[in-house]
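Residues determine shape. We examine one folded chain.
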Amino acid sequence: MATKATEGAGSRRRATGSLVAMEGEGAPGGAPDPSARASAVVAGGILLSRLTGLVRESLLRGVLGLGPAADAFAAALRIPNLLQNLLGEGSLSAAFIPVYSRLLGEGRQEEAGRVAGAVAGLLTALAGGLATVGILAARPLARLLAPGFEGARMELTVDLIRVTTAGVGLLVLAAWCLGVLNSHRRFFLSYVAPVLWNGAQVAVLAAAILGDWEPANTARSLAWGLVAGGLLQFGIQAIGVRRLRTGIRPSAAWRLPGVVEVIRRSGPAVLGRGVLQLSAYLDLVLASLLVTGAVAGLMSAQVLYVLPVSLFALSVAAAELPEMSRHPDGAGVAQRGGTAMRRTSFFLVFSSVAYLALGDLIVGALFGWGAFDGDDAIAVWLVLGAYALGLPALGASRICQSVLYSRGDTTGPARIAALRMAVAGGIGLAVMFPLDRLSIVDGSLVGWDYLFEDWGPIEGTVEQATAVPHLGAVGLAIGSAGAAWLESALLARRGRRTLHDLPMPVTVLAPLFPAALAAALVAIAARPLVAGLPDLMAAPLGLVAAGGAYLLVAWRTGIEEAASAAGILRRLVSR
């Protein structure tokens, strides 16, 4: 057993090495670490795209609120989101990037180009066919996506699906460009490109505000804005791929060994990597059975829920996957996976605390204007808080998935993802109808007397808009959070079968508990002090206070990522 002095010295050495890695200057051993700077670049691109996404969502909530048109647009948006993830970014991240990156690392550029071209041709044909089916079968799709919709809300959903599915092919090809650019370590363009997708919709919403458009007309115009944004997103990335001068040309050469391997991996990867979209689809179906506004409220909470995952887990996982795929040493992959898990957990634990303790202020600051009132903010906060319980586990899952994908294992994550969806759906279905009898009225939670009155939908309110928000969507978020912890544990256990040094998520998260507790206490104590301020001021002040406590306690308890972050902050302040 090491002495305390030895442990302290080791901790200081690890902290120093982590600081260098976070800044992208090198790894602890002095060798350059391409993924360290790459993860920061990915995070920068994601941050810009997510900020524009928050602007889009804020304008959307202000124009449509949580009404029927908002529900219809949220349902129609699931088609492009789902297919992009399943056919594009999801399967390509799991299947295409490891194969393409390995060929590049072995110096087989010509073969890599042929594989990439064949994958592009196959994706174009598949996405085009699915888009055509989506347009022709819009009504059955609307019934499948939102079985609880009826009347005008259902008709509007059908109209919107016919438009949004037209842009599916563009989004899938944009994801193919992302795979090529990432494999060549060109990360920023592919992750900042969604700014254009969001920007096109922001322009439509701005016109709707200035022109005082009706909600239904706004939703239809937004659907066309989505298609225009998809064209812009694909176009800018296609230019980036062309500038690589790889000689890639689309083809139908699906018999190439590399293409066969990509196809073999893609089947299970559709579920494994696309678990977020598939789970969100299940939530949408169940939410459509709840009181009007549940779908839109769930979407608003998911916008904030996904933000830290994208910034602090997706960025690291995306940068690590090409490097892990090139790495021939299993022990080295396990070490990279553990380091990545610790880095993401440090940020996601604080994000979870912030959403739980300050979520109403954050929601109010971003969405609290126009048709979105204080009761809506509290309802979305409660959904967000339930989601936040699973944030650290979700981040660990993304890292473990990348570890398994780099080793060619897509079947295991697929099976675990299927189990996760079943568990999340089961828990959500069990508790969402009772919770839907609770509502927010003038800032107070009412309806406790009717909580277990009936275990089914509230009669007469599924289609009819209500004056107050209900909390059925909180049950769906609780199911998602519980299933996320199960998924992270199972993925880590599968990885440890061959990579014995890969840590379990619980062992990575446990040292962060004192810092999380300190941040929560400071956030709660700060609430009365900022109570009289607008949410736009109160939320940042509360976050700064809680973040300072989290960083200080984490640093004092020997968390190396905290020491790294503190060093970066000191240099920024001293400039």
